[in-house]
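Now for a typical sample entry:
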Amino acid sequence: MPHAESRGEADPPFVILGTIEGRKNHALLLSMWRRMLDERSAAQVPRLVIVGRRGWQADEVFARLDRREFGDRVAEVGSLDDRRLAEALAGARVLLFPSFAKGYGIPLTEALAAVAPVIASDLPVFREIGQGAPELMPPDDAAAWSGAIADYARPDSARRHEQLNRLAAFRVPDWHGHFFRVNTPTPGPLLHLEGLPVLHTITPCPS
């Protein structure tokens, strides 16, 4: 992905990146933005930019976006080419990944490599790839997500500043090594067969 410099916007948006589908949990964020708009003026609500094509199992999310019930506070921009994606990451206040399930977490890696703060679900793949940099929380803990988004929306957010410091130590994963670890049999407990110790291993399923 090409490098892009932040444009220093006065109101940098929150960004969620990835196909719009049920397991990505866009519904959680739309509910939060709806609540913020109900509780305060639109000018006091941060912007949310949704990057990614429409997928499946998210009909209610599509309906809410089509109704344009969020005004200019939520924008769906579809898929972006590499240059525009780099610009979106560089200009983001925070990248949001509230997924219930995830594969290898490449979008999260792209965000961290662009030195964009991340709030993500507490999933094993995000813990491994994130190297302790992003804030992780359960995808169904609406209170935790609301609190984090409210904090990061502040221009003087201490949590955001602390994460930017952690990001200085982030290193893009060696994907060859990552896949090797994933596909290497995992040693298990010793089993005893007719008095002889046998090392039990967990063999990966064929792909």
The chain has one domain: 14-176. Helices lie at 26-39, 59-67, 82-90, 106-113, 124-130, 142-152, 158-167, 175-183.
